[in-house]
Amino acid sequence: MDFITLTIDLLKTLSIGNFGIGIILLTVLIRLAMWPLGVSQQRSMRTMQLLQPKMKAIQERYKSDPQTMQRKMMEFYKEHKFNPMSGCLPLLIQMPIFILLYSALMSPQFIQLAGDTPFLFINRLDATLKTTAGVSNDGVFGVSKYDSFIAGKSAVVYLPDETLENVKVEKPNKALEVQGDLVPGEPIDFKISLDSLNLKFSQLDKITKAEISVTDINTKETEKLTFERKGGILVSSIPSKAVSSNLHYDVLILIILFGLTMIASQKAMMAMNNTDSMDPQQKAMQKSMNTFMPIMLMATFIFIPIPAGVLLYLIVSNIIQVIQSVIINKQLAAEERRKKEVVTDDDIKEAKKIEAKED
Question: What residues contact residue 302 under an 8 Å CB cut-off, 6+ apart?
């Protein structure tokens, strides 16, 4: 199953006039589907804070006997129906989603379909912070020395007596090869094996030429090339020119917005946590993590190419997380107030009976 194609098809379905809107709607759907897990995560964090003093007492009491301490901690978790790993589940589920969206927006399918789509102040959704600029369909490939290329998913194939549209290219990421060295400013020679075209053997023998889109993975530039038959392969040549890297300031703004919304998200999630039960070392560690985690991720996104569309997903996800945390925190606070106000039957039975005094 091609999950990347399914993701792009889903984005096409959700896109109301723009793929940026599709990414936002996809983020909203994902966050709504994960809402119960978000409630579980917030409840788990709150429970851990409330149980922290008792957990610390167990650790102190059995610190010289690690095996007993571990057993007592497991019994303590079971008694209070608490799973310390439950708060990590939403993060684990989001990782495959992040990787899949990243792969989809970096894929040639998306680049050819809507890579140059602008949205708000974003110039193109597939752009990373520092990429080389390329102009598609101008008959010249703008390249640097170490660029790589990929063929389109379909081709127009010409036979002596007919033209075949939408012929599938098998394994387009491996079908295309550059013949010789890639030297910017000199023509680029491409070749594709006839076996890469999903046709009958009788049709393969009759192929005279084929039109196939070729995309430079580094620059996101796409050119439609005509491949002529030469023996058992199809070959094509196109002029090239050297290009230099450009800094995309719109992507830099997205990285900064991601950091700010992540800080806001962390503050919202920690708003109900009782830090009084933490020792000074725990408080300092918590504060350091909340400060340095966004900075570390922002630095990572500067050095690792992240498409603008993925950053848009992360920003919207953080904003929804803030809203979700505020709502859930209010619900948990209301639950705790109700528990304190309710007088149980056991409380009534244990209460002392007061006899009326006689005059």
Answer: 129, 255
